[in-house]
Write a structure and sequence with these properties.
The structure is a single chain. The longest helix has 21 residues. The chain has 13 helices and ten strands. It folds into two domains: about 160 residues, D-Maltodextrin-Binding Protein, domain 2, CATH 3.40.190.10; about 100 residues, 3-Layer(aba) Sandwich (D-Maltodextrin-Binding Protein, domain 2), CATH 3.40.190.120. A five-stranded mixed sheet has the order 7-6-8-5-9. Strands 3-10-4 form a three-stranded antiparallel sheet. A two-stranded parallel ribbon has the order 1-2. It is an alpha/beta fold.
Length: about 300
C-alpha cells in the first residue's frame, strides 16, 4: 500500500471514530462528559450561602453523572446575575419562584405556589426555561425581634400600623426599589417605612441591626436558621405581598435532557425542613458548601 493510500485510509478511520464518539445515540451523559462536547455547564449562585449550597448540590450531582461543570458562585443578587443568565453566560441557576416571577412581571396577580409556577414558566424569556419546582421553600418575610413584637402587639404586617415611632426597613440596597420594599408596604398595607441598606442578604449584620434597634423591620428568609436562634418573629403577610417561593432551577436551552432529569431528581428530594438543616450546617457547623452537598447527595443516593 502506498503512503498516499495509507494516509487516506487513516483519515477515513479518524473521521469514523470522531463520528462515533460525538453522535452515538446510545451515549449517556456519563459517557459523553458534557451536553456540549468540549464545553461545560456553567452553574451560578447568589451571594447567599443557602443558594450556594443548592448550586453545589446541582454541580456535584451533574459531575457524578459525567458532566463537566464550571462553578460561578457568589455572583450577587438578582439584578446582577439575571442579565448574565439571559445573555447565555450561565446555564443553570437555583432560583425562587415568587421573587423571580416578580422580577419579570412586577404586577403579577399570582400568589399561590402552583399559580406562581405556571405564571413563571410563561414569563421566562426565550432561550431559558424553569425546571420542576422543589418542595423546598425559602420564603421572604418581614421579621422583627420578639421584644419589638411583644411591645407593639405585632403578629401580622397590618399590625405595624399600631407602631407610633418611626419604622426603618433593612435589606440589600436593591430592596429599596423592589415590590416588597418601602413602596410595596405603602401601596399594599398603607405602612410608611424608611430604608437602610445592609449588604448581607438578611445575614448577621441585618440581625444585629434588628437587635440593636438600628432598624425595626428586616426581610429575612424563613429557612434561615438565625430566625430560630435569635427568636425573631415573622409577621404574617395576610395580603400576599410576598409570593410563594419554592426553589426552582432556571436553565438555559443548552442544558440537555439528561442533565434536566438529574436536576429534577434533586429538586424532588429536597424538602423545606431539609433546606433549613442544610443552612444550619453552614451557619452553626461552619462547613463548606461542598461538604454539605456531598453529604446530602450521599444520604439520598443521588451520587
Amino acid at each position: 500500500m502506498s503512503t498516499t493510500t495509507r494516509l487516506a485510509a487513516l483519515a477515513v478511520a479518524c473521521l469514523a471514530l470522531t463520528a462515533c464518539s460525538s453522535n452515538d445515540p446510545l451515549a449517556t451523559p456519563a459517557e459523553a462528559g458534557t451536553a456540549d462536547p468540549g464545553g461545560s455547564i456553567v452553574i451560578g449562585s447568589q451571594d447567599y450561602y443557602s443558594n450556594e449550597i443548592i448550586a453545589e448540590v446541582y454541580a456535584q450531582a451533574l459531575e457524578g453523572a459525567g458532566y463537566t461543570v464550571d462553578r460561578q458562585f457568589r455572583i450577587g443578587q438578582r439584578e446582577a446575575y439575571l442579565p448574565e443568565i439571559e445573555s447565555g453566560s450561565i446555564d443553570l441557576f437555583p432560583e425562587y419562584t415568587g421573587p423571580l416571577l416578580q422580577y419579570w412581571v412586577p404586577d403579577t396577580p399570582a400568589r399561590l405556589a402552583d399559580d406562581v409556577y405556571a405564571a413563571l414558566a410563561e414569563a421566562t424569556p426565550d432561550g431559558l426555561r424553569v425546571l420542576d419546582q422543589s418542595p423546598a421553600t425559602d420564603q421572604d418575610s418581614y421579621m422583627v425581634t420578639r421584644a419589638f413584637a411583644e411591645q407593639w402587639g405585632l403578629s401580622t404586617v397590618e399590625d405595624l400600623a399600631k407602631v407610633t415611632t418611626p419604622l426603618t426597613l433593612g435589606g440589600n440596597s436593591e430592596g429599596e426599589t423592589r415590590p416588597n420594599g418601602p413602596a410595596g408596604l405603602k401601596d399594599t398595607y398603607g405602612i410608611d417605612v424608611g430604608f437602610t441598606p445592609i449588604e448581607d442578604g438578611g445575614g448577621p449584620l441585618t440581625v444585629k441591626a434588628l437587635q440593636d434597634g438600628d432598624i425595626q423591620l428586616a426581610i429575612i428568609y424563613t429557612a434561615d436558621p438565625s430566625v430560630q436562634k435569635n427568636d425573631l418573629v415573622a409577621l404574617q403577610d395576610t395580603r400576599g405581598l410576598f409570593l410563594a417561593s419554592h426553589v426552582v432551577p432556571l436553565a438555559s436551552d443548552d442544558v440537555d435532557a439528561g442533565a434536566e432529569e438529574i436536576i429534577d431528581q434533586v429538586s424532588a428530594a429536597m424538602t423545606a425542613d431539609e433546606l433549613v438543616g442544610l443552612n444550619a450546617r453552614s451557619v452553626e457547623e461552619e462547613l463548606p458548601a461542598a461538604t454539605i452537598a456531598t453529604d446530602w447527595l450521599a444520604e439520598h443516593d443521588l451520587t
